[in-house]
Amino acid sequence: MTDVLRTVRGHLGRLTLNRPKALNALTHDMVRALHAALDDWEHDDTVRTVLVDGAGDRGLCAGGDIRSIHDDARAGGTASLDFWADEYRLNARIARYPKPYVALMDGVVMGGGVGISAHGRHRVVTERSRIAMPEVGIGFIPDVGGTYLLSRAPGQLGTHLALTGAPVSAADALHCGLADHHVPSDRLADLTEALTQAPAAEAIQAHATPAPASALAADAGWIDHCYAAGTVTDILRRLRDHGGPAAEAAATLDTKSPTALAVTLRALRSAATLPDLEAVLRQEYRTSRAALRSADLVEGVRAQIIDKDRSPRWSPATLAEVDEATVAAYFTADDSDEARLEGVWSR
Is domain 4-341 annotated with CATH 3.30.43.10? Predict the structure, then answer.
């Protein structure tokens, strides 16, 4: 059984992630298969629209194959670096794909799932959508262009989402610029059928409905004030002082990797100044490489995914112990990694 189902019907090339028991988590082979399909269909006049969706009824994609990355990190291997180079190249390819690329972001869409959907031209959410970049909870840093997307959300909403790892609804995703259209889940089959004949924009418009109001937009006042602070420590202070839902956000941040929080904040602020997605992906490759060699990634995956005791022992354990040199090291280029990325966007 293949992990990516590839079909052409009418004018629609459809890619279905097919690991429903793993919530369609991406493997390196799946990334290669997606690349190959996009390569083949780019110059195929039969295919006018590309659609990506997920098998099963739980969601599009829960992210990358975290267990494999954990095992690679423990062994001091480099397989994850090769995976990320191809994955980030795929993210960039999707963003500039010359044909309409439609992503059905139904159900759970996390991490790598965001990377293969939220960079597309037509991003469709439903009432079941739950979209998140939860990396700080496993000692990792948002990647797959996540810092690019979140740094460009209104105000400080992206900072809030990156540091808490909180999932957002369809309405919030639309408000934050992570999605474009709301289509009820019971109309997705009809939309897919329409895409086999009609132009993508026309088919989507015919099936889209208004989304509810965004809860995040209503909370923008305290979010913008608290997360505009210059450091995670100061953000936490403002959140606690504000109280209510802000204090709840502070309690959430207290459970995350202190190093990952500090690196993520710097990555977001830097991403906002970088010129394009490719530049941000290069920065994310550096932070991912550094995270792979950190103790927190192995410990975070152990606590959340493997042993599931939800009690990670972060090292260092507090923000006060995370010094500037540690954070800066996540952004330092490494010659071997730069060689791995050489020509990565042009292939």
Answer: no
